[in-house]
Write a structure and sequence with these properties.
Layout: E1 5-7, E2 23-25, H1 34-43, E3 48-54, H2 57-61, H3 63-72, E4 76-83, H4 89-100, E5 106-110, H5 114-126, E6 135-138, H6 140-143, H7 151-154, E7 161-165, H8 171-187, H9 198-217, H10 224-232, E8 235-238, E9 241-246, E10 249-250, E11 256-262, E12 265-273, E13 277-279, E14 313-318, E15 328-332, E16 337-341, H11 343-354, E17 361-366, H12 375-383, E18 389-390, H13 438-459, H14 470-482, H15 509-518, H16 542-569, H17 576-586
Parallel strand pairs: 1-2, 3-4, 3-5, 5-6, 6-7, 14-17, 14-18
Antiparallel strand pairs: 7-11, 8-9, 9-10, 11-12, 12-13, 15-16
Length: 587
């Protein structure tokens, strides 16, 4: 049958007009809100979330898009909790117990059933899972129902943050709400009328769109295809905003509002837009309003709970084969106990003691007896949940960050980065002078002249190219000097990227530990204030100039001494007149 099917509540991404071209979704796809939720989590720097959803097509449909959105902002979905709509109170209790046993305290709830959602929050309150330190975020499925929550339920939802499409409060909408409440009070005089939800507005707009489409097809063949095409081409400003169908579904909203349950009211704390992400205003980038979190606090939760289970934190350490200066594992034969020490161990112990809460932990040596293990193997044990953490002399590399998180480095060299440097090309007439300092240029020029002079002294008597007029001899001398200059290729020298070393605490305990293991390092040369230059100075080439000057001078002295000795042997320097004639000929 070619009959258009119009829905204003089926928002699951699994439903699509591609399978049934006569399926018209007069509501937004659930996947449109995933970026708003992910950016809200990113805004508070939480690294892990727990996804709680019902076991329906609606609940499962958003999961792939939501996981991808969190991955894009470097947030991991550590656990998923799936609850059937028909679950008993005991089954909901069991699921709450599982949630309480994990560290993560940021929960994203995606449900469309008010009944299941109310039972979930009731049980979470009973288990003190909605106390201070927890974060509960609801998708639009529950957020759109906030207007119809019973007063008894409001008390259980204090501090919850919800995301839903933003509907601008136009004059048309205000007038409709007035008529809505008046009609509701007439039919139910004993019940306080609540405002219509966005689902009510979508339903109203859907009926208006259908009536407009039917009017367009009057007098035309009343086929389903004609009506469908007319409906797809219908566009108007409805109660919920711009009504326009794109690819069989309502055009995605560009703005979502973020709601916070405070007292007996729902308070807007900000918006999400593609341009400004999370912001107090939909038209500019500003910090969102202060959030009232579960536990009646405005302090931002850290997103994870202190270790409360009876189990100890499993800390893996390198066994035999690692550097004993960092981690040393010894087996006491008399007591059959393993003693673990070293620089890394003492740093970890000091860091754990510095926490303002207690976390029990134990060291577990990692030693693959059947093969040679690597540090990658040890790190991988955290990924497969064999260890909760590892301590040792690990290098932070790109491939390892795909499996684990690293703390700040606690020893030099710390974090090093090798990056390309963008050459700053400054146009100017004298730019070619930049590689050398003025002292380097003057010294080089002096040595060019001196070298040319020495060559001229040695060559002009026997090489006819050095003869002729005085100006010709001078030009030949400088030509010969500059032809020996070699220009370096490539860009000018630039400073290396400094190594960034961050301390693990403000106390000086780390320095004390380093002193115990490595001794006092204060005797090292103090390099503070030494700034490398990107220009060549005389300090870098004084040895070369010394060799050049000494060689040229030695050649000149030897040449003159040889010449004088030869003239004396021949008797041509027997009188002052002979000396005068000798120097005249030499010149």
């Amino acid at each position: 049958m070619q009959v258009p099917i119009i829905t204003f509540s089926a928002s699951s991404p699994s439903l699509s007009s591609k399978r049934n071209p006569y399926f018209v979704r007069a509501t937004v796809n659930d996947s449109t809100q995933v970026k708003a939720i992910a950016h809200f989590v990113q805004n508070f720097k939480w690294k892990e979330v727990v996804l709680v959803h019902d076991d329906t097509d609606y609940g499962h449909g958003i999961v792939p898009d939501l996981v991808d959105a969190f991955r894009d902002v470097n947030v991991a979905v550590s656990h998923r909790s799936v609850i059937a709509p028909s679950a008993t109170d005991g089954e909901v209790d069991s699921e709450i117990d599982r949630l309480k046993a994990i560290w993560t305290r940021v929960f994203v709830v995606h449900m469309a059933s008010y009944s299941l959602g109310s039972r979930l929050f009731t049980k979470a309150n009973e288990a003190e899972l909605m106390s201070e330190g927890s974060v509960w975020i609801t998708t639009d499925g529950l957020t759109n129902l906030f207007e119809n929550i019973y007063p008894s339920m409001i008390d259980l939802m204090q501090g919850i943050v919800g995301v839903r499409p933003y509907v601008r409060r136009t004059r048309k909408l205000v007038e409709f709400i007035g008529r809505w409440k008046k009609r509701f009070h007439k039919d139910h005089p004993d019940i306080d009328a609540s405002e219509p939800t966005v689902y009510d507005l979508w339903a109203y707009d859907s009926l208006q769109a259908l009536s407009m489409a039917v009017e367009k097809t009057l007098g035309i063949s009343p086929s389903g295809l004609k009506l469908l095409n007319s409906l797809m081409n219908t566009s108007f400003d409805g109660l919920s905003g711009k009504f326009s169908l794109v690819d069989g579904q309502l055009m995605s909203p560009s703005t979502f509002e973020i709601i916070n349950v405070v007292g007996n009211r729902k308070r807007r704390i900000g918006f999400w837009t593609p341009e400004f992400k999370i912001s107090r205003s939909a038209t500019s980038k500003t910090d969102i309003k202060s959030v009232f979190w579960p536990g009646e606090t405005n302090d931002v939760p850290r997103g994870w709970e202190v270790w409360t289970s009876g189990m100890k934190l499993r800390v893996g350490v390198p066994g035999n084969g690692g550097l004993t200066e960092f981690v040393e594992v010894e087996q006491d034969s008399s007591t059959n106990k393993t003693r673990i020490g070293g620089f890394s161990i003492q740093v970890f112990d000091a860091a754990m003691k510095a926490l303002n809460y207690s976390v029990p932990y134990e060291y577990i040596p990692f030693d693959e007896q059947h093969r040679m293990w690597t540090y990658d193997d040890l790190i991988y044990q955290v990924y497969i949940k064999k260890f909760d953490a590892v301590v040792g002399d690990f290098t932070i590399t790109a491939n390892r960050t795909a499996f684990v998180y690293f703390t700040d480095p606690y020893s030099e060299p710390g974090i090093s980065m090798l990056v390309t440097v963008t050459e700053q090309n400054q146009k100017g007439t004298l730019t070619f002078l930049k590689p050398l300092t003025s002292g380097m240029w003057l010294t080089s020029l002096a040595f060019f002249v001196y070298t040319g002079l020495v060559v001229w002294v040695l060559e002009h008597r026997i090489n006819h190219n050095f003869g002729g007029t005085l100006s010709h001899q001078i030009s030949i001398m400088f030509y010969f000097s500059f032809s020996t200059l070699a220009f370096s290729k490539g860009s000018p020298l630039v400073d290396d990227i400094s190594q960034a070393i961050q301390k693990i605490g403000e106390e000086r305990k780390l320095e004390e530990i380093q002193s115990r293991f490595y001794g006092n390092t204060t005797t090292c040369q103090d390099r503070v204030g030494v700034v490398p230059s990107n220009r060549l100075t005389l300090d870098s080439f004084w040895g070369l100039f010394l060799v050049t000057g000494a060689t040229s001078t030695s050649a000149l002295v030897i040449s003159l001494a040889t010449l004088v000795y030869h003239e004396k042997e021949t008797g041509e320097l027997s009188s002052p007149r002979a000396f005068h004639d000798f120097f005249k000929r030499w010149r």
